[in-house]
Specification:
Helix content: 25-40%
CATH topology of the largest domain: VC0802-like
Number of helices: 17
Bound molecules: adenosine-5'-diphosphate, aspartic acid, magnesium ion
Mean pLDDT: 92
CATH architecture of the largest domain: 2-Layer Sandwich
Low-confidence stretches: none
Length: 594
């Protein structure tokens, strides 16, 4: 019998009428011949209210008690939903995360799912019930209640769909589907019918709050088609599916994280191991670090900058300060007034000229980019918070996202595994091993065909990156990684990599632009090695970048440039260290390689 999982978010169960409307959707799906599992969030803003209440009692509420408190919101709504279904004359049973057997680790407020037992769920479904699962919660090995992080009901839903081998996971929410960017932020955003897992993973982790990014990890790992649609109407929404099924556009969406903080550590020694020492205490706290950049060293010292979610900046600074006591260096800047604007598209991996278009349009709008990082399918720029909205609107229109016309209703694809391991095999492996949300790495690769150019001390003002990369694109050079780091209010370093056969052409352009703008110097290295780890959910698994830094530090290999994304982490090292580096990484991640 077909099985669907239907998830209803907070606004979709905000009052009794909405609960009844959701109940009717579930009943209808059952009448159409499906077994139905509902996953329900807390009503309306209930979770926010509980957080506020906790903060009134205690400025830093213990995480365990926070979970105990927040999980009650979902318990209220599942019970009401079961009552609503009963009132319509159908059978329903509500279950908490613990009652289902959603086992998690013990990282309170950001727990990861380890295993889900399906016996009870299946028995209840077979007996004709609609099963209503509390979203966002689980239980650890000591029976403590845990929660999966804000927005985590999506993850519960897709995880249940994965273990039950559901035909579809429907995410009912307060928008019609997935838009090119948040339609509440930019009214000109357009709906898209299909997005692929990798794009959605990036968008979600770069600020598109419509999906919890870890839910998309599950979707990708277990090939669950996710259908995002409105709980208020019956119009078809958007689907998140495998990349083969979507058109790969250079830019298919844009996102904004308003609550970002930039932390710069000054005067740290430019030697192997520094990066690892700075970031490992932050990773231990499971704080997601993004946009890691470092400057050209001066007198053996360098500046390392990175961004973290604003709410976690104080903790991150405290953790790094401890490392600096041993390492040397100082926290030079903590800027809580920055936002990250990103564009994402599978097609940009195959095209030149995407980054310079973004830089040019921001320069024309007089928006300064404090930091830039790119990876295969995304470009992020850190800007002052006051220019964030302008920046988002400008890039959104530059890539004509406001002109996209949504195609016809999406077709939910049949679940296939393309000759790979069956869903049962993957679930069994993960359930038995380190857990369902355990890190899974697809590939560890060495690319030793590139060169690097760094322009140091360029004026930190709008237009330079645009000019440089416009000229580079005109010269037909295919730029791979771009990193602009922060040196001070006034100056920045810009590093980029390109195929070695285009090195001379790129160097010529860099020298010309350097002379025009009065930058200090152009530094370059003809033979570099780019080491990459690719997989699913790599940025949210804070341990991946750290594992790479550790393995390379242990082998005394210095890291020159870093790039993080959800699907890939890249580091650039000296060309001579490539072969040793790749061996170290293979060893480090042996257990996580599929
Ligand atoms: P729920 O409570 O149903 O989980 P959320 O508030 O978590 O709902 O997610 C839905 C919201 O996500 C929308 O109201 C919208 O403002 C926001 N959003 C952010 N980015 C996007 C996007 N790219 N497409 C659609 N909605 C988005
Ligand atoms: N109720 C939780 C929250 O508000 C989980 C969710 O809605 O997904 O974050
Ligand atoms: Mg949500």
């Amino acid at each position: 019998m077909p099985l669907v999982v239907q998830k209803f978010g907070g606004t979709s169960v905000a009052d009794s009428q909405k609960i009844l409307a959701a109940a009717r959707k579930a009943v209808r799906a059952q009448q159409q011949g499906n077994q139905v599992v509902m996953v329900v969030s807390a009503m309306g803003k209930n979770t926010d209210d509980l957080v506020a209440l906790a903060n009134e009692v205690n400025e830093r509420p213990p995480a365990r008690e926070m979970d105990m408190l927040l999980s009650t919101g979902e318990q209220v709504s599942v019970a009401l939903m079961a009552m609503a279904i009963d009132s319509l004359g159908y059978k329903a049973v509500s279950l908490t995360g613990g009652q289902i057997g959603i086992k998690t680790d013990s990282s309170h407020t950001k727990a990861r799912i380890q295993s889900i037992s399906t016996d009870r769920l299946k028995a209840l479904l077979d007996a004709g019930n609609i099963v209503i699962a509390a979203g966002f919660q689980g239980i650890d090995e000591n029976l403590n209640i845990t929660t999966l992080g804000r927005g985590g009901s999506d993850t519960t839903a897709v995880a249940l769909a994965a273990v039950l081998d559901a035909d579809e996971c429907e995410i009912y929410t307060d928008v019609d589907g997935i838009y090119t960017t948040d339609p509440r932020v930019l009214p000109e955003a357009r709906m898209v019918r299909q997005v692929c897992y990798d794009e959605m993973l990036e968008l979600a982790s770069l600020g598109a709050g419509v999906m919890h990014s870890r839910s998309v990890e599950f979707g990708k790992k277990f090939n669950v088609p996710i259908h995002v649609r409105s709980s208020l109407s019956d119009v078809p929404g958007s689907i998140i599916v495998d990349d083969a099924l979507t058109a790969s556009m250079a830019v298919s969406g844009a996102a904004l994280t308003k609550d970002e903080a930039l932390i710069s550590v000054f005067d740290v020694p430019d030697v192997p191991g520094t990066i690892h020492k700075i970031f490992s205490p932050i990773a231990d706290l499971k704080i997601t670090v993004d946009m890691i950049v470092q400057n050209v060293a001066e007198n053996g010292n360098t500046t390392v900058s990175f961004t973290v979610p604003r709410g976690e900046a104080a903790e991150a600074v405290e953790a790094v300060s401890h490392s600096l006591e041993e390492l040397g260096g100082r926290i030079g800047l903590v800027d809580q007034d920055v936002s990250k604007v990103s564009v994402v598209g599978l097609g940009m991996a195959k095209q030149t000229g995407v980054a310079n278009r973004m830089f040019r349009t921001l320069a024309e709008a007089s928006v300064n980019m404090e930091i830039i990082t790119t990876s295969e399918i995304k470009i992020s720029a850190l800007v002052k918070r006051e220019s964030a909205l302008k920046a988002l609107r400008t890039v959104h229109s530059q890539f004509e996202l406001d002109k996209i016309v949504a195609s016809d209703a999406p077709q939910i694809p049949e679940r296939t595994n393309d000759g790979g391991p069956s869903v049962e095999d993957v679930v069994r492996r993960l359930n038995e091993g380190m857990g369902m949300e355990a890190l899974m790495i697809d590939d560890i690769a060495l690319d030793d065909s590139q060169s690097r150019i760094t322009m140091s001390k360029v004026p930190n003002e709008p237009g330079i990156a645009a000019k440089l990369f416009d000229r580079i694109a005109e010269a037909g050079v295919f730029v791979d990684m771009i990193v602009q780091s922060y040196a001070s209010e006034k100056i920045a370093d810009i590093t980029f990599t390109m195929p070695r056969e285009q090195f001379e052409d790129a160097l010529k352009v860099a020298n010309q632009v350097c002379a025009e703008f009065g930058c200090e110097k152009v530094e370059s290295k003809k033979t570099i090695a780019k080491l990459s780890v690719s997989g699913v959910g790599l940025r949210s698994h804070t341990g991946v970048a750290i594992g790479m830094f550790k393995a390379l530090a242990d082998a005394s290999i210095n890291i020159e440039t870093i790039n993080t994304s959800e699907v890939r982490v890249n580091v650039v090292v000296d060309g001579a260290s490539g072969a040793t580096g790749i061996e170290c990484l293979r060893h480090q991640f042996a257990d996580a390689l599929r």
